C-alpha cells in the first residue's frame, strides 16, 4: 500500500456531484431540488459548505439538461462553480477534478485537497467538517466521515424469490461510509483515471483510492448526517435542520 503525500494541505475545495435524478424518491423533480423549509436540499447542502471558513470554494456538477439550478441562490455565487455532470457519480466527480486541474495555478495543484460531499446530505455539521480537516492535516493522508455499525448485520441468501438469513456478520470492524470524503486533488484525479482504465466498480471516492493503493482514514461523524434517499427521509432531515 502506497501512502499519499504527507504534506500540510494549503487549501480545501468542496466538490458536490448533483447531476443525479434520485429515482427512489419517486418525485416530480430530482431529489436535490425537493424543498425543506422553503429551500432546496441542494441549497441547504451548499449553504453548509459555503459558510465554512476552511473551504475556499465549491465546484458543483450539474446535469447539462438541468432546469432547476438556475433558480438556486448559488447559481451565480462567486464561490460556486458549475460544471457539467456525467452519467455516473464518479464521472461527475472526475469532471469537477478535471476542471480544477485546468483552472488552478500549477503551483497549487499538489497542495490542494478536495472534499467530495453528497448533494443529498444537507444535515452536515461544521464540526464534522472541522474534524475531517483536522485529521487529514495531522495525518497527511485522505479520510472519510463514517459511523461505526451499531446494528446486528445479517448476510442474506435468496431462494425462490425469498430472502433468508445466511449468517450473521461480525460488526466489530464495519463502518458506514458517509461524506465528505477528503483527498489530495491530484491523488483522487489519478485514482479515478486508473479506475476508469481498469473498468473498476467505483462506489465512492474512497473505493477509488483503495484501488490506487492509498490510505483512507476513518473519522467518526455524526449520525445526523443522513443521506436523503427515500421519501420518509425528508421529514427527518427537516427536524434536524430546524433543530440547529
Automatic annotation (TrEMBL):
Residues at the site labelled Transition state stabilizer: 24, 31
SUPFAM superfamilies attached to this UniProt entry: Nucleotide-diphospho-sugar transferases
Pfam families: IspD
Pathway listed: Isoprenoid biosynthesis; isopentenyl diphosphate biosynthesis via DXP pathway; isopentenyl diphosphate from 1-deoxy-D-xylulose 5-phosphate: step 2/6
InterPro entries: IspD, IspD/TarI, IspD/TarI_cytidylyltransf_bact, ISPD_synthase_CS, Nucleotide-diphossugar_trans
Superkingdom field: Bacteria
EC number assigned by the record: 2.7.7.60
Site feature location: Positions MEP for the nucleophilic attack: 171, 227
GO terms under biological process: isopentenyl diphosphate biosynthetic process, methylerythritol 4-phosphate pathway
Listed GO MF terms: 2-C-methyl-D-erythritol 4-phosphate cytidylyltransferase activity
Keywords in alphabetical order: Isoprene biosynthesis, Nucleotidyltransferase, Transferase
Catalytic activity: 2-C-methyl-D-erythritol 4-phosphate + CTP + H(+) = 4-CDP-2-C-methyl-D-erythritol + diphosphate
Function: Catalyzes the formation of 4-diphosphocytidyl-2-C-methyl-D-erythritol from CTP and 2-C-methyl-D-erythritol 4-phosphate (MEP).
Family: Belongs to the IspD/TarI cytidylyltransferase family. IspD subfamily.
The protein, known as: 2-C-methyl-D-erythritol 4-phosphate cytidylyltransferase
Species: Paraferrimonas haliotis
Amino acid at each position: 500500500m502506497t501512502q499519499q503525500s504527507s504534506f500540510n494541505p494549503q487549501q480545501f475545495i468542496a466538490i458536490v456531484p448533483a447531476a443525479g435524478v434520485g429515482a427512489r424518491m419517486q418525485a416530480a423533480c430530482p431529489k436535490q431540488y425537493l424543498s425543506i423549509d422553503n429551500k432546496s436540499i441542494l441549497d441547504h447542502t451548499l449553504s453548509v459548505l459555503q459558510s465554512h471558513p476552511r473551504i475556499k470554494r465549491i465546484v458543483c456538477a450539474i446535469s447539462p439538461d438541468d432546469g432547476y439550478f438556475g433558480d438556486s441562490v448559488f447559481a451565480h455565487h462567486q464561490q460556486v462553480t458549475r460544471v457539467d455532470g456525467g452519467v455516473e457519480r464518479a464521472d461527475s466527480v472526475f469532471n469537477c477534478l478535471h476542471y480544477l486541474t485546468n483552472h488552478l495555478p500549477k503551483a497549487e495543484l499538489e497542495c490542494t485537497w478536495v472534499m467530495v460531499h453528497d448533494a443529498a446530505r444537507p444535515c452536515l455539521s461544521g464540526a464534522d467538517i472541522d474534524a475531517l480537516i483536522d485529521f487529514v492535516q495531522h495525518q497527511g493522508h485522505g479520510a472519510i466521515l463514517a459511523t461505526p455499525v451499531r446494528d446486528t448485520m445479517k448476510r442474506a441468501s435468496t431462494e425462490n424469490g425469498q430472502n433468508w438469513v445466511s449468517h450473521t456478520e461480525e460488526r466489530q470492524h464495519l463502518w458506514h461510509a458517509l461524506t465528505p470524503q477528503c483527498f489530495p486533488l491530484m491523488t483522487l484525479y489519478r485514482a479515478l483515471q486508473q479506475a476508469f482504465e481498469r473498468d473498476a466498480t467505483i462506489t465512492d471516492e474512497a473505493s477509488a483510492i483503495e484501488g490506487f493503493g492509498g490510505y483512507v482514514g476513518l473519522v467518526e461523524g455524526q449520525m445526523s448526517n443522513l443521506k436523503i434517499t427515500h421519501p420518509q427521509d425528508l421529514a427527518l432531515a427537516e427536524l434536524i435542520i430546524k433543530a440547529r
